[in-house]
Task: inverse folding
């Protein structure tokens, strides 16, 4: 049928069911991909990844050919060995980009829909509050993983491709699991907190500010606990009150690469992360559910 | 048919049985029973009568505290997602995604309704053509006028070819021309496209223009339900008469014969005749009194009168 004919015909296609959340995620990513600031932070992430690629290449060449001039440069600049610590460090650097990108992408995700009365339109279609919540969460998770897991796995692949033999492969291939796990640890709690703030505060600016305040507060808590432990080592578990510290601790534990002097303890660290996820998830889901089903 | 549950096609489109909906202690719907099998139904009532609550209950947004709600024979809210496959909704409030174009917006909602991307895009253009949104469809929606936004809302409601269209105040904020055009579209959808339309409005002419059945609500209860014809049926013994020559003598003569005469505009006389006096007696009186009848019709209730009668004083 010609497109530009003013008429109305019955739709003869089939309406699919299931995986509606994926439509929300796809549309979000489509819109966000045109957002200049998001593009800028992805570019920064890409530059960081390229620097690490050069590092890995130089290190591997130097390892395999000590006569190569690069070997001297590696020794001269004391480049880190390509091991678990390097990948954990890479992800820790990317965490800042994840935080800012998710703030940009997520603080208005729910609040703008509520303010613009779009929820009524969404839920008049065969979309449930579960689909909506999952779709929004998956958008931010996908963005977070695109800044963490994807480049880190790419770096690992580069490293593996430069390894001289299969036995060396086995030494490094196990890092894929920790990379994905730590990336999820860095992404999921932030995604849930940003979405909860967006849903609860109803305004993009307030939601963004609230998350920044929470992150700063975590830093202050970390500082206080640091001061306490310098006086008495018994207070290390209090580090768990700062969830970013707990996340870092768990990341290092996953990579078997402790780099900090503090010992949060596995139980307090997991409890801290899970509690933040549970509270943020509850606030987010409750608000979204109320948009579909009046209380 | 859009591929949704075809086994429910013979069932009434809407069935409500003694439905109660509460907001805390406030009862927004108090025992509403209603069956709609097709056509265009107008929901009328003063503010707070329960019109929007009724529509939101049909959408599954409000859950009935008691009673039974069925759409296309499917129990609600148990099969709400299936029912929504066949349901289009145009809300009263402005609903926009400011930074994206109408094409993106409506296509996205088509995908949410279950269409694939290319099907949704094609259908989006058809729906936007149908509602009369031309090149502006490619502009961000934040630049649209109220009338354009109303058209976009109608297009998104139509994109998946619903069997039931719920329209909440569709002419809100429209200029007179836009209003007429919107009403014509809605009428076309209901009469020629075989879509059941529920139109919620506080504008009686809008409802009368589009609907063939009217349901009046007051304080969460249905106080009147019938066809426009029935609600505006001729009242026995009441006539509208216009005469030429001797109109004053004619009026006085009728009053002397026991009629109640109320002059209306344009020389029209509203005559309420006593039970024993029929139309031929009125013609006889005109002949006797030297008046020539130029207009004679049984008096009908206007919709406004029927509305006021049903809901009491405004």
Result:
């Amino acid at each position: 049928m010609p497109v530009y004919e003013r008429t109305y015909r019955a739709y003869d296609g089939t309406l699919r069911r299931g995986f509606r959340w994926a439509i929300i995620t796809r549309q979000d990513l489509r819109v966000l991909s045109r957002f200049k600031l998001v593009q800028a932070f992805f570019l920064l992430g890409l530059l960081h990844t390229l620097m690490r690629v050069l590092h890995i290449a130089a290190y591997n060449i130097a390892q395999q050919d000590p006569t190569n001039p690069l070997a001297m440069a590696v020794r001269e600049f004391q480049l880190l060995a390509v091991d678990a610590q390097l990948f954990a460090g890479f992800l820790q650097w990317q965490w800042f980009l994840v935080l800012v990108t998710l703030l940009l992408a997520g603080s208005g995700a729910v609040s703008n829909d509520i303010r613009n009365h779009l929820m009524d339109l969404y839920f008049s279609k065969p979309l449930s509050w579960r689909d909506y919540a999952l779709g929004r969460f998956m958008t931010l998770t996908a963005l977070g993983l695109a800044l963490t897991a994807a480049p880190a796995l790419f770096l690992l692949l580069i490293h593996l491709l430069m390894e001289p033999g299969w036995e060396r492969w086995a030494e490094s291939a196990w890092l894929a699991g920790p990379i994905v796990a730590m990336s999820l640890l860095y992404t999921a709690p932030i995604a849930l907190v940003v979405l909860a703030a967006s849903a609860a505060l109803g305004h993009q600016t307030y939601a963004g500010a609230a998350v920044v305040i929470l992150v700063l507060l975590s830093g202050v808590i970390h500082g206080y606990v640091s001061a306490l432990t310098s006086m008495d080592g018994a207070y290390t578990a209090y580090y768990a009150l700062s969830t970013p510290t707990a996340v870092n601790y768990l990341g290092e534990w996953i990579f078997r690469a402790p780099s900090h002097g503090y010992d949060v303890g596995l139980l307090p660290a997991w409890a801290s992360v899970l509690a933040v996820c549970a509270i943020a998830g509850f606030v987010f889901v409750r608000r979204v559910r109320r948009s579909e089903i009046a209380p | 048919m859009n591929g949704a549950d075809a086994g429910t096609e013979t069932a009434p489109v809407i069935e409500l049985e003694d439905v109660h909906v509460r907001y805390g202690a406030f009862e927004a719907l108090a025992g509403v029973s209603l069956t709609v099998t097709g056509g265009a139904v107008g929901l009328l009532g003063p503010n707070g009568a329960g019109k929007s609550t009724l529509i939101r209950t049909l959408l599954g947004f409000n859950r009935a505290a008691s009673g039974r709600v069925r759409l296309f024979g499917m129990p609600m809210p148990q099969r709400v997602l299936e029912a929504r496959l066949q349901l289009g909704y145009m809300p009263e409030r402005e609903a926009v995604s400011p930074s994206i174009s109408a094409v993106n917006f409506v296509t996205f909602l088509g995908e949410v309704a279950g269409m694939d991307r290319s099907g949704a895009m094609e259908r989006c253009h058809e729906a936007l053509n149908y509602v009369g949104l031309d090149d502006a469809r490619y502009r961000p929606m934040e630049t649209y006028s109220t009338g354009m936004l109303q058209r976009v809302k109608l297009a998104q409601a139509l994109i998946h070819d619903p069997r039931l269209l719920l329209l909440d105040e569709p002419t809100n904020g429209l200029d007179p021309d836009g209003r007429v055009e919107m009403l014509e579209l809605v009428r076309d959808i209901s009469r020629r496209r075989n879509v059941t339309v529920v139109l919620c409005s506080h504008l009686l002419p809008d409802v009368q223009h589009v609907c063939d059945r009217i349901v009046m609500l007051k304080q969460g209860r249905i106080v009147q339900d019938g066809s426009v014809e029935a609600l505006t049926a001729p009242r026995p013994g009441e006539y509208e008469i216009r005469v030429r020559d001797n109109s004053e003598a004619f009026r006085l003569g009728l009053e002397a014969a026991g009629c109640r005469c109320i002059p209306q505009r344009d020389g029209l006389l509203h005559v309420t005749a006593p039970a024993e006096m029929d139309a031929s007696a009125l013609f006889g009186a005109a002949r006797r009194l030297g008046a020539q009848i130029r207009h004679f019709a049984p008096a009908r209730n206007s919709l406004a009168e029927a509305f006021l009668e049903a809901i009491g004083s405004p």
